[in-house]
Specification:
Length: 393
């Protein structure tokens, strides 16, 4: 006699509903470990980017070595992109699990199922919003970094519960060749032929490799010729390198080209300054070769020439400790990145410049004319363009 519960066992709940041998515990475990690594790297590098841009009191970011952020953020985007085929493959391998009977076997099982909501939802959102952001497509009205940041905590929380729940079966599956399929009986009854597990893993690895090589050239110069899918070519843009926001978009053209322009140096200083361009040009200049590492993963290194911020602060009689840093304000009337904070280490670094020139040419308006902040080891969004004011805090 068939019980009521058994009668409900229809469609994908039916025994033998999934026949592919690729729904295997071992494949799920291998892909899970790979995703654990890429998500771990993404989370740590993303968290670092967040802390640099919104530093809590306990966090101090160094200005040296100058190129650390370009490596960490390049890695963030590269491991994020590599996670796309890994996640798609993983979801396909394990989705028969969602149709297990009974759907909920115990309280622990219910909690483990529940943790999949932030894990899968958060992961899909992170990968989608990340890719949309690097191709500069914003089909939403919320703040991308804030939503991406909170989604990463949700996904990582879900991932930790998932790792706890699956640690034993992962160890078992990785311990011996050909561990049980996700739906054992079904796989045994499944058709012969088709893609082998090894072939499937090879295809996923090839997709990861091709996607990585096709995009990473925006951060790793020697690969730029192969990176057909890279959202940015670091050689393309005004003066031969990219911009994210033009002077026109920032509505700053009139203010930046006004002959009455003055750089203000104010705040906790003995002698506030209001310097014209001629006065700035008459100050001792310094040259520094430094990268602009974009939060979107691309970076470009250029030789900049300008006035060291430390000299301007000394001339204004700022106290040497610069305890609470220096606020750098753009002429840009509105925008999420119109101000940035220089912490004491960056403000004191001799290579932190208000640049007037790049590669021996006057700075183009789209690159921040009349003055652009250039500072070692800081995201491009913190290298404020069209600087109008420094305020010692
Ligand atoms: C294709 C995948 C991904 C891409 C392209 C991507 C891209 C980005 C970009 C462009 C930023 C900089 C945002 C900004 O400061 O304006 C960022 C920040 C961040 N990402 Fe991702 N990401 C991806 C996946 C992930 C994943 C899987 C995680 C976590 C597991 C993650 C965690 C973070 C965190 C915590 C931040 C810092 C957000 C903030 O500044 O508040 N990302 N990501």
């Amino acid at each position: 006699m068939i019980g009521r519960a058994d009668r409900l066992r229809r469609g994908p709940f039916r025994e033998g509903a999934f026949t592919s041998r690729l729904h295997s515990e071992r494949l799920g475990a291998i892909l899970g470990v790979a995703l654990g690594v890429t998500f771990g790297v993404c989370f740590l590098t993303g968290l670092l980017s967040h802390l640099i841009q919104h530093p809590p009191g306990w966090f101090h970011w160094t200005s040296r070595p100058a190129g650390v952020y370009r490596v960490t953020q390049g890695l963030h985007v590269a491991t994020g992109v590599a996670s796309i085929p890994l996640l798609l493959a993983k979801l396909w391998v394990v989705y028969p699990h969602l149709w297990r009977w009974p759907p909920i076997a115990s309280v622990a099982h219910a909690l483990e199922r529940l943790s999949l909501v932030p894990l899968v939802g958060g992961s899909v959102f992170l990968l989608f919003s990340g890719v949309a952001s690097i191709i500069r497509w914003f089909p939403w009205h919320f703040s991308f970094p804030r939503a991406h940041y909170w989604a990463s905590w949700a996904a990582i929380g879900g991932l930790l519960v998932h790792i706890g729940a699956k640690a034993a079966s992962t160890r078992r599956a990785l311990g011996r060749e050909g561990a049980a399929p996700v739906v054992a009986a079904a796989a045994e009854a499944g058709p012969e032929g088709g893609l082998s597990r090894r072939g499937f893993l090879g295809a996923v690895a090839a997709a990861v490799g091709v996607l990585t090589v096709a995009t990473v050239g925006q951060a790793v110069r020697p690969l730029s010729g192969l990176s057909a899918l890279a959202p940015r070519d670091p050689d393309v843009g005004p003066q031969g390198f990219p911009i994210n926001r033009t002077a026109h978009e920032a509505k700053v053209e009139r203010l930046a080209t006004d002959p009455a322009y003055r750089l203000l140096v104010e705040g906790r200083v003995a002698d506030p300054l209001a310097l014209s361009m001629d006065e700035l040009r008459a100050m001792p200049m310094r040259e520094a070769t430094l990268p602009i590492p974009c939060v979107d993963g691309w970076n470009v290194s250029k030789t900049w020439r300008g006035v060291p911020v430390a000299d301007l602060l000394a001339r204004a009689g700022a106290s040497a400790d610069l305890r609470d840093g220096v606020l750098v304000e753009s002429l840009e009337p509105k925008g999420a990145y119109r101000v940035s904070m220089l912490d004491p280490a960056h403000a004191r670094d001799p290579d932190t410049l208000l640049a007037l020139e790049v590669e021996g040419e006057p700075l183009a308006l789209d690159h921040g004319f009349p003055l652009r902040l250039i500072t070692p080891n800081a995201p491009g969004v913190m290298q404020t363009k069209w600087v109008g004011r420094l305020e010692v805090r």
